[in-house]
Model the fold of this input.
Amino acid sequence: MTTPSFKSSVVDSEPSASEKCDPPELQKLLVESFGFAAFRPYQQAVCETVVAGHDALLVMPTGAGKSLCYQLPGIARGGMTLVVSPLIALMEDQAEKLRQQGFRAERIHSGRSRTDSNEVCRRYLRGELDFLFIAPERLAVPGFPEMLARRKPALVAVDEAHCISHWGHDFRPEYRLLGERLPLLRPTPVVAMTATATRLVQDDIVTLLRLADARRFIHGFRRTNIAIEIVETPPAVRNELVAELLTDSTRRPAIVYAPTRAKADELGQLLAAALPAASYHAGMSPKLRDEVQAGFLSGKLQAIVATIAFGMGIDKPDVRTVIHTALPATLEGYYQEIGRVGRDGEMSRAILLHSYADRRLHEFFMGKDYPESHVLSDVFKKLPTDFEAREQLRKRCGLQEDEFDAALEKLWIHGGAQLDADDRVRAGDAAWIEPYETQRKHKAEQLDLMFGFVQSHHCRMRGLVAHFGDESDDGRPCGLCDVCAPGQTVAGQTRELSTRERHALRAVLDTLSERGNATAGQLHADCGESLGFSRREFERVLDALACADLIALSEESFTKDGRLIRFRRAKLTAKGRDVDAAQLDEVRVSSLMDKPGKRREPRQEKAVRRARQAKTEAGIGVNGPVYDALREWRLLEAKRHRTPAFHVFSDRTLMELAAAQPSGMDDLLLIRGIGPSKASKYGEAVLRIIRKTTSGVG
Ligand code: ADP
Ligand code: MG
Done:
């Protein structure tokens, strides 16, 4: 394919008005230069905005086609487009694709030689490039941003822009440099894009990148072919229920998400007895994982039970069902995971099993990972002014290892402690407390949002779409979920009411017709307690009434000790006001929670056992040459970057690396503690070490 002639003829980066494309020309470029027949939804509007020189923030789901929204305007503006991207593999992939389309695309990152990078800079300055991909940390290299400024690009694109916000799930401090260095490249327009940004993260992106006037395009989060079903289910019966659901072949292929590797294996084995199924997680050998993944993609395996690591690179169009066997930690994560069904547009189902036990477990881990401020304060007060060995300090603090590590890590992140490469510690800045408390509160709020979501009696899809702030959405109910279409659910099971439940139900209706409305707590006190209902049993009666459309439940909240407390308020519906006996007979209540569970362990014990289990799982690789080699490398790396060793990788991550021995970037991303940023920074080195050590060379 030949390079469109106008590209090389442009010398100044700021195109004159005549060079800017009008809509028909954009269409032509789309077809002739990019080979696409038509724009996908919203692409054209974004392209027109950016071509006209406006800044833009783009939040659209994965696969929506965000890349085109900088590629086409960049070409249309007739200069070079600078693309900031967090991941080497991503840069390589996109640059290669662009080259295949006939564009001149280059990249500068840590994986390339100095000679190559210098040559790319020269070509950039000579105006010989259409696209230049760089990693954000390049902007910290002295002279590099100034070099870019000598020939201003026609467009700057910031991919995965959520990385700039520490509210996002993959915060990268290097992205913060962008805000400082972008002004050098102005007035060039900037387009920032991401698939995952709540309103808070969107605002962060706009503030930190200084895009005050950016047009926001928040679109495409509504999926019209996913029926979401949320079912309160005791932990002990979840595996059986999943097995039962998946015996129906129309519900396959299926991805089942399990909370731990052990649980993934357990359920995988159960399913495998009845259908072609396997488990998939980072604790398995890379070879086995490849086999499982290939088996699933080819259709040989019809169900896969995975930890959330699975599916990042998976694009299998015909997945019919996603089942979560435990409550996810964030709505963003949940949305990404259910997004893997029905890519072919056919009707699909997302089933989430949860119960109060999940909530308690999340709260327990939240308390462990984010200790209360006074725990950090106690450690902070004991921090010496001169560096002291970490272990010695721990003993002086009198804390358990886990507790101490969590507190110290958080202090370090927020500047309250300094660590050197030899793992010694000294006091930092006392101003850590405010940012820490803000972060802790944010984490708690994310959990609260998840809890609120499963408890809500509103359309599930609408709830998700609203969470992402999709502006084009009309807010209509989906008509498919367990709230919109309770008659069409497949996982929930119901039974007739018991006599006691009938009494309670009658009492609730009477109370509400007297008072108009009441909170769930008041109703429990007035209509449930005397009949011997626990609060949770009673909530199920309220749910049954709401499902039968006799009462409406709304969520309300108040703040107590800085934390949002949610509660439900009930009022009669029109149908509930003049309900007759026959209608009352039709009310059914969820029966899944009736099933006697296995002997219940007290909740704390269980959580501790799980934590220990996770630890031993991770411990597989401790004694071995790979682990030793990785530790040695980590120490050098930490020294080189003057950063504490655990910030390079935690011991646990090294253990998992040694156990799983990943062979490629994708596998690396399955390891706990390795996200795109770490993979891009250290991935190549780690893979090299593993390769070397396992093959016995060097
Ligand atoms: P995102 O970054 O939003 O996840 P990409 O930009 O990687 O998505 O695009 C996803 C896929 O869609 C790519 O294979 C891309 O080539 C394709 N694509 C983008 N725009 C169009 C279009 N207008 N018509 C057909 N395919 C498109
Ligand atoms: Mg993308």
The first helix runs from residue 5 to 9. The radius of gyration is 28 Å.
